Amino acid sequence: MSSLDTAKYDSSDLRGAYAWTDTLKGVHYGPGSVKTALPKLLSTLGAKKAFVVTGRSLHDKTDIVKKVESILKDHNAYGATFYEIGQHSPIAGIRDALKRFKDVGADVIVSVGGGSPVDASKAILYFQQQETGGPYLRQIAIPTTLSAAEYTSGAGYTNDEGYKVVVSSPELAPAGIILDAELTLATPERLWLSTGMRAVDHAVENLYRPLVPPPIKYLCYAALADLFKYLPESKANPQAIDVRQKLQIASWMSLWPLKLEKYSALGLSHALGHKLGARYSIPHGITSCLTLAPVVALKAETASKEDKEWLAGALFHLRKPSTGSLEGDILKLSADIHKLVDDLGLHSTLTEYKVPREDLPQIAQLAVGAQDDPLLPKVVALLESLYA
């Protein structure tokens, strides 16, 4: 190919494909990519009939689900659509969806939306496999937020008692992911930006998450740099599709698909978010806006030297000067996260969500995991600070 032939190609890295040859068969990205990527992934998986899983707002208030259905119908691969998946993936919706999935004889799920449809789809496939004892069926995820649930093998859902529970298996990770920024234009601003803070939470907590290899940590640094840059730009210019595409790629980098030898939880901010979110109906993204900055500040006091070094290293990638000490740099990172939340108009309090103060010790204990953990009083104090 001559240099003249390559001139028509954009060097912005906003289009392309990446494949992980085990569970994940392909990530396709780029504005308008759903039209070609969805048929390709169906063919790769040998799928014949798709079951679309989404939420009511996306189904009723936008044409996004209809676009996906139309592509499936054009390839004679449409089965049915289920749009009763609520926030935090309640088990009742998952049960109803599983029954419908089996009734239509679908062999693949196409999830459309944020983390709740993606996680609900994993749970549906988990329970289907438990019933049949056969191989896991697969999911193609088409995210419209930045929550990054599509890159993990775990599924969080809310049980009948109102608590968040998790099922996990390598086979539950979506087999295909389509990042089409055009499909995010209808995402409400608060949801889009707050799930962007969820991606910031992923990137930061991966810096001290056990078993994460160093190259992935450097991807997280790159994710942080892009998220800090492009989230404010997206707020200022919501129709900028190129900025939205860059944010989708940054979300991908924040939680790069990993095949870990054993399960490794992200960190305290996520643990607190899981306990607060389902029980008190706080959206995932908003829990990150609440908990991440104070958790990072706590790390300046409690983290190991190696974890402090990784956290402090974020300032270099954010093009911020060092304070001269690891602890000072971590506190600066915490302050920068707090400022980003404020600049995006996402400041929240536990008062707004009517979280009773008397519940704080239990929330802290569930997040930390042990009554006698010396960290427990500090976590209770952290939660107390979130009422201001």
Q: Radius of gyration, rounded?
A: 21 Å
Which secondary-structure class do the elements indicate? alpha/beta
Counting H and I runs of at least 4 residues, what is the number of helices? Answer: 16
Which second-level CATH architecture of the largest domain applies? Up-down Bundle
* Overall tally of domains: 2
Order of neighbouring strands in the sheet with most strands: 1-2-9-6-5-3-4
Q: Do you know the CATH topology of the largest domain? A: Dehydroquinate synthase-like, alpha domain
Helix content: 40-55%
Number of strands: 9
According to CATH, the homologous superfamily of the largest domain is Dehydroquinate synthase-like - alpha domain
Uncertain runs with pLDDT below 50, 5 residues or more? Answer: 1-12
Order of helices and strands: HEEHEHHEHEHEEEEHHHHHHHHHH
Largest beta-sheet characterization:
7 strands, mixed
What is the average of the pLDDT values? 90
What CATH first level of the largest domain would be assigned? Mainly Alpha
CA-to-CA gap between the ends?
61 Å
- In terms of DSSP E residues, the strand content is 5-15%
- Please tell me what the overall shape is: globular
Domain Fe-containing alcohol dehydrogenase-like C-terminal: 194-371
InterPro entries: ADH_Fe/GldA, ADH_Fe_C, ADH_Fe_CS, Alcohol_dehydrogenase_Fe
GO cellular component, one term: mitochondrion
Domain Alcohol dehydrogenase iron-type/glycerol dehydrogenase GldA: 27-180
